[in-house]
Amino acid sequence: MTMLSKLTLSALFVLFVAATSQAAPVTLENCDLNDYGCKGATLTLDVTDHSDGTYTVLYTFDTTTYTGPKDNLVQVGFKVIKDVTDAELVSITSGATSLSLSDWSDALMGPVNSDGSPCTSNGGSNTDKICIYAKSNLLSAKSGKVYKFEFLVTGGSVLSEDEWHFGGQWGNTSPAKGQIISGSNGGTPAVPEPSAALLFAVGAVTVGRSLRRRA
Fold first, then answer.
1. pLDDT tens for residues 17-43?
2. What are the phi and psi torsion angles at 51 (to 5°)?
3. pLDDT per residue over 190-210, tens digit each?
4. How many angstroms separate the CA atoms of 160 and 183, rounded?
5. Which residue ranges of the chain lie beneath pLDDT 70?
6. Residue among 134, 41, 44, 142 nearest 89 (CA)
7. pTM of the entire structure?
8. Helix (H) and strand (E) counts for the chain?
9. b or e along 4-18 (b: 16 or more beta carbons within 10 Å of the residue's beta carbon)?
10. For residue 193, with 0-12 CB atoms within 10 Å meaning exposed, 13-18 middle and 19 or more buried, which class applies?
11. I need a labelling partner for 120 at 20 to 30 A (CA). Which of 18, 31, 113, 213 fits?
12. Is-contact 78 130, C-beta < 8 A?
């Protein structure tokens, strides 16, 4: 096998792995137009498939343009994985700052709830929804910060994007009533930044072409 062929196969393999392990982030579009409750904030979900039945879910709340009357973000919920069997809150960050996990509940199997009983389904099915709620040191929604919640989810498979659900709740206290965020995906994939894998693959093909010309 020639050097060009080896480099090309390596590049294609890297591209294949990169394409199948992580989808592009998806933003909930037209949230306020559809009265989903974002109040000017931008919500984005990003899923990485580890190919072992586990998934990393990154849920981002960008409050830069938040205009709602409530002061804080008090519940966070989503649905992106089918047949969920376990979920764990791994980290919460704001910029380069790591925030305390102890200020939030463990990841619960249930929906965001607006009646003052956070993350409960009132006897119904959780329908693969994952939820956490604030216990103390509430995150300000009016500070213009970007909050990222990282979860490790165990389950069957990633749902199609039209089945993804974005959830949350704004409140002055926790638990709180009302001011729920609840919307079906309906977003369009954001244009991802070039990954290291993609750059490597493009470089490999370029080098291969150069070697062929020299030969």
1. 444 467 789 999 899 999 999 999 999
2. 60, 25
3. 443 444 444 444 444 444 445
4. 15
5. 1-21, 122-126, 185-215
6. 134
7. 0.78
8. 2, 14
9. beebbeebeebbeeb
10. exposed
11. 31
12. yes
